[in-house]
Each structure stands twice: as C-alpha cells, then as structure tokens.
Amino acid sequence: MLSVNGLDVYHGYVHALKNVSLNVRQGELLAVLGANGAGKSTLLGTLAGLYKPAAGEIIFQNKKIAGQSPEKIVRAGIALIPEKREIFSGLSVMDNLMMGAFHRYRQDKADIPNDVEEVLELFPLLQGREKDLAGSLSGGLQQMLAIGRALMARPSLLLLDEPSIGLAPLVVREIMAILVGMKESGVTVVLVEQNTKAALRVADSVLVMERGKIVHHGSSKEAISDSLLQEAYLGRT
Ligand code: ATP
C-alpha cells in the first residue's frame, strides 16, 4: 500500500534521508528504529507532506504523493501523530476529537458522531472525560487522545513518532496493544520508536536507520533473534 523509492531529503545542508526505499503492506505494523538523528522523524514527516523530497517517489495506494501538501495527504488517508502529540490543551477532549475530523466536515459530517463513539470505545479511559480540558489529562491519556484524534480522519495509514516517550511501562503496553488492535482492523501502522523492546514486541517488520540510510529491513522475529543486529544498532533488549 506504501512504496518509497530513492527518497532524498535535506534540511538546509543536512542530508537527512539518503536514497531511502521501502515497502509497507496493507495491515502491516512496521517499526522504524535507530539512534537520535538517524532520520526517523524526517521519514515520517516526508510521508506526511511536511518536508519536500529533493528526489524520489512515494506511492500510496497507487498514487504518487511525494511533495503534496499535508492537507492533501491527510485526505488521501495518511495521519501523522508527531512526537510532541500536539493536542490542543486548551480545548476539551471532545473538541480535540472533532478537530481530527475537520477536513471531513463538507463530505461525511453525518458519520462524525458515530466515529467519536467508536474512538471512545477504543479508549475507555477517555470516556466520561469528554468535557475535560485536554491539557488536564495524564501523559498516557493525552497520547491516547492524540491517536484518537488522528483516527477521526479515518486514515488507512497511521504514522506515529515515539508514542511511548515519557510514559510508564504499563501505559506503553496499553498504547502498543491499541496499535495491534488497529492493525488487526486493517489500518497500516508505521511506528518510530526509541523503545526497541516495546516496538519489537508488536511489529511485523523492522527497519533500522543510521545517518539517513536504511541499514536493515526485515521481520521483527528475525531482528529479535539477531544478536549482532541488536548489538550494532539497537542495544541489547
Ligand atoms: P530523533 O529521535 O532525535 O528525533 P530522528 O532519527 O528522528 O532522531 P531526525 O529528527 O529525522 O532524526 O533528524 C535527522 C537529521 O536531520 C539530524 O541530523 C537532525 O539534526 C537534522 N534535522 C532534523 N530536523 C531538522 C530541521 N528542521 N532543520 C535542520 N536540521 C534538521
């Protein structure tokens, strides 16, 4: 469903992605691992239309999307949950969810209340908190709200940038279980993580980046049993 070929991205003089190519199947959960500065966030940002590639192609559901605006890419079915979560902390939980459906207002407005119900079923801990300010929620609930808001756009591809950052292990497990549930319902997931252990537990496949390049791409099973790979790039898990 997603095919990236020969992607080159620069931030000024920094060559952040170097000839990056990858394929993701429908319903796959791909973990993107690697040290700080490896280019993981740049990869997600480029898929979401935040950075324009200098070269290369991104084909999503048979359409070329490289260089398109973020709005167009959201409409095509790709949603990004950035590292800083970027929920609207001064708005209520409900208003945050509604903001996620903003671009749908003119198309399928009638389905929106139903989708809110579905998101709240997926995140029972948000139930009863609909009127609370998003900024008053715990870190874990804010991350759930950020995912819920992204789901309101009805994406077929969800991009997550370090959803586990700053969260307690139990909450990380909950978030990962939700990602597995989404994958099982047919949503394709690309998960950037520093928490290698948590990511390998749920991923189907793994991509390791180093200094803008992909240095490994394989199954997560293989990565878990590959001690050399773990030693070289991932730290022991
Ligand atoms: P982290 O886990 O620290 O976010 P990362 O693997 O996601 O790391 P990127 O954030 O994609 O890596 O950064 C890749 C390279 O591009 C780094 O050298 C970084 O300093 C640089 N970079 C990223 N964003 C910008 C920017 N907006 N302007 C200039 N350089 C940038």
TrEMBL record:
Entry GO MF terms: hydrolase activity
| Occurrences of domain ABC transporter (ranges) | 2-236
Q: Which domain of life is it from?
A: Bacteria
Do you know which PROSITE patterns this protein is assigned to?
ABC_TRANSPORTER_2 (PS50893)
Which Gene3D superfamilies does the annotation name?
A: P-loop containing nucleotide triphosphate hydrolases
List residues traversing the bilayer. Answer: none
Would you indicate the residue range of the signal peptide? none
Could you list this entry's UniProt keywords, alphabetically sorted. Answer: Amino-acid transport, ATP-binding, Hydrolase, Nucleotide-binding, Transport
Give the family from UniProt: Belongs to the ABC transporter superfamily.
- What name does UniProt use for this protein? Metal-dependent hydrolase
